[in-house]
């Protein structure tokens, strides 16, 4: 399991690379792993998705 600091670091890198599409990218990865039955990877990607949503702020969708 990734440490929280690693989650935020990875989320920042993803945001820098994908911009507004970063949240969708993380959600897509999480769903892929959920469908494959890899709950640990899916959980990590959901944490990354949540971190990205916090970084976006409350007024962006």
Question: Can you describe what's shown?
Answer:
It is a single chain. By secondary structure, the protein is an all-alpha fold. It has one domain. Helix content is 79%, strand content 0%. It contains 3 helices and no strands. The chain has helices at residues 4-18, 22-36, 39-56. Helix 1 (4-18) crosses helix 2, helix 1 packs across helix 3 (39-56) and helix 2 runs antiparallel to helix 3. The model has no long low-confidence stretch (mean pLDDT 92).
- Main sheet makeup: none
Percentage of residues in helical conformation: over 70%
Helix-strand sequence? HHH
Measured by DSSP, the beta-strand proportion falls in under 5%
C-alpha termini separation? 28 Å
Beta strand count: 0
What structural category arises from helix and sheet content?
mainly alpha
Which stretches are low in confidence, meaning pLDDT under 50 for 5 or more residues running?
none
Cα-atom radius of gyration: 11 Å
Structure annotation, total helices: 3
How many domains? Answer: 1
Shape: globular
Overall pLDDT: 92
